[in-house]
Design goal:
- By secondary structure, this protein is mainly α.
- Helix content is 52%, strand content 5%.
- The protein contains 22 helices and nine strands.
- The strands form four sheets. It has a three-stranded antiparallel sheet with strand order 5-6-7, with no helix packed on it. The protein has a two-stranded antiparallel sheet with strand order 1-2.
- Helix 1 runs antiparallel to helix 2, helix 1 packs parallel to helix 5 and helix 9 runs parallel beside helix 13.
- GO terms for molecular function: RNA binding; zinc ion binding.
Length: 614
């Protein structure tokens, strides 16, 4: 039977030997991914054994039963020689009863571990169980989670490749769809990611990771900055009321009062709050249960975000592998699987440590990639993105790919900016904000603004003055109405001063051989003064000689003197309206047409005579 001190000595020896074996294991070259995973699992097993030995050693030093103290007193007292011979007698008695007992030194056990690592058996090469789709830790197998997702209520229908790209973008899912079925889907996805991480990265301390996630989540949840679950104050009165009811506080008042009442509870317990903030008759605890349920769902999402970040490389390889498989035939896929199996079973003859002074990335064969390839892909260039929280991306390919990933999309969402193509290659917060302000101004300027947009008058003889579009439309309305009414009965024309000319002439004159065309600022409102046909023969000479003017925005007629309209004439009266008879105007226009027709006929005969003469 070992003494307490002998057990302590053996535990100390075992700890030192475990530490030595773990150091050698980590320094050994791993040529394939299978070797790396198996090595990590062996290291994990030795770590667990190391922690177990340390716990036993701590219990012996605590000496809760007092045996260690008794043993020390026995060997350090006045009868130490008697104690020595007594123990020697016990040892001889034990070997006399067990003459064939073999004592195996601890060094033999650890030497066997080293031999098993150098020449692993078939069982030692498959320490972990993976599915065929996972490729011994190379790819993810999310088919079950994918089927669960597409069967959720109101979920969009998408293919497996698209799901691999967006399954971690949980912040884009509306809150109304985050029900009990959605929670079960999150639990299923999280369970797989945890189990896969434990198999692929066994050295990852998941207990420590869980504590880290929980601490960060509590901070973001209290501040209302967790992605997909914005702060209630920014969502209006109803959400503020729900939050206040959940705490048993008063929920009345304006938006600012409710927000101030809710923000006053930050960082404080309910017992330390002022009693005047609480409602006299607190509501039922249904709202509080909803808040707790939402918090549980959000915490599941926080864990998924962290595990997806850890398994980012496997996720990217899975996406490429699925695309490659879809582009190949069944025979090509079988050949590829056979090649992967042969590569995983092949042994590398070189056992020395990889010489990699420039810290180059490892290729598919476990060796550093060539330096020229390293430079070609730009892996020596690091890109920092301030929008992603100063995250560093290695190489332009990873940098360009990150603009479509959830980290950058979440950063843009926090800035209140849509993650569109306009913001490609924008990594600084200040640049993104200034560009967004410029785009908003550009979009605002492209909209139709009736108060400021100018429209030129469509006059054939002159461009005319520029007027606001709204003013032109308002002025055109009565003209159009008069034109419609004039088709039934002759009515006075529009007054000159109703057109705001701003000091310009109301009429634009174009003189021809025997008449003058007078045109108002509206193109379809045009009248003729025909001096030879008596169209205005009844008007006085002063009326005919008066300059056609209009003084802007004043209700004065254009002519100072005029006469009454008759059956065969028209006239501009002192009220500023042009009174005319449609029949007389038509007769005048008909006489003009006959005169023009006669002139054209005369010119035709003259040209014919010139053509016939020799």
């Amino acid at each position: 039977m070992e003494t307490i001190l002998e057990q302590q000595r053996r535990y100390h020896e075992e700890k030192e030997r475990l530490m030595d074996v773990m150091a050698k294991e980590m320094l050994t070259k791993k040529s394939t991914l299978r070797d790396q995973i198996n090595s990590d699992h062996r290291t994990r097993a030795m770590q667990d054994r190391y922690m177990e030995v340390s716990g036993n050693l701590r219990d012996l030093y605590d000496d809760k039963d007092g045996l260690r103290k008794e043993e020390l007193n026995a060997i350090s007292g006045p009868n130490e020689f008697a104690e020595f011979y007594n123990r020697l007698k016990q040892i001889k008695e034990f070997h006399r009863k067990h003459p064939n007992e073999i004592c195996v030194p601890m060094s033999v056990e650890f030497e066997e571990l080293l031999k098993a690592r150098e020449n692993p058996s078939e069982e030692a090469q498959n320490l972990v169980e993976f599915t065929d789709e996972e490729g011994y830790g190379r790819y993810l197998d999310l088919h079950d989670c994918y089927l669960k997702y597409i069967n959720l209520k109101a979920s969009e229908k998408l293919d497996y490749i698209t799901y691999l790209s967006i399954f971690d973008q949980l912040f884009d899912i509306p809150k109304e769809r985050k029900n009990a079925e959605y929670k079960r889907y999150l639990e299923m996805l999280l369970e797989y990611l945890q189990d896969y991480t434990d198999r692929v990265k066994p050295l990852q301390d998941q207990n420590e990771l869980f504590g880290k996630i929980q601490t960060e989540f509590e901070k973001k949840w209290e501040n209302g900055t967790f992605p997909g679950w914005p702060e209630l104050a920014s969502l209006g009165l109803d959400r503020l009321k729900s939050a206040l009811l959940a705490l048993g506080l008063k929920c009345g008042g304006t938006l600012e009062e409710r927000a101030q009442r809710l923000f006053s509870t930050k960082g404080k317990s309910l017992e330390s709050l002022d009693t005047s903030l609480f409602a006299k008759n607190p509501k039922s605890k249904g709202t509080k249960r909803d808040t707790e349920r939402n918090k549980d769902i959000a915490f599941l999402e926080a864990q998924i975000y962290e595990y997806v970040e850890i398994l980012g490389e496997q996720r990217h390889l899975t996406h490429e592998n699925v695309q490659r498989k879809q582009a190949r035939t069944g025979e090509e896929r079988e050949e590829e699987e056979e090649e992967q199996i042969s590569e995983s079973e092949s042994e590398d003859e070189e056992n020395e440590i990889i010489y990699n002074p420039k810290n180059l990335p490892l290729g598919w064969d476990g060796k550093p990639i060539p330096y020229w390839l390293y430079k070609l892909h730009g892996l020596n260039i690091n890109y920092n993105c301030e929008i992603c929280g100063n995250y560093t991306y290695r190489g332009p390919k990873a940098f360009q790919r990150h603009f479509a990933e959830w980290r950058h999309a979440h950063g843009m969402r926090c800035l209140g900016i849509p993650n569109t193509a306009h913001f490609a290659n924008v990594t600084q917060i200040e640049d993104a904000v200034s560009l967004w302000a410029k785009l908003k101004l550009q979009k605002a300027s492209e909209r139709w603004q009736p108060d400021t947009e100018l429209l030129k008058t469509p006059v054939a003889t002159s461009p005319g003055p520029e007027l606001p579009k709204q003013t032109v439309l308002l002025l055109a309305l009565p003209v159009v109405q008069n034109l419609v009414r004039s088709q039934v009965t002759p009515t006075p024309a529009q007054t000159c001063h109703s057109f705001h000319c701003f000091g310009e002439r109301c009429y634009q004159e174009a003189k021809f051989s025997n008449y003058t065309a007078e045109r108002r600022h509206w193109e379809r409102h045009c009248k003729l003064k025909q001096y030879n046909s008596g169209y205005i023969a009844s008007c006085s000479h002063a009326c005919m000689a008066e300059t056609l003017r209009c003084y802007g925005a004043v209700a004065q007629p254009c002519y100072q003197e005029c006469c009454q309209a008759s059956a065969s004439s028209s006239c501009l009266q002192l009220d500023g309206n042009l009174h005319f008879n449609e029949a007389a105007a038509g007769a005048a226009r008909s006489s003009l047409h006959w005169a023009l027709a006669g002139l054209v006929l005369l010119l035709f005969h003259y040209a014919l005579i010139l053509y016939l003469l020799p």
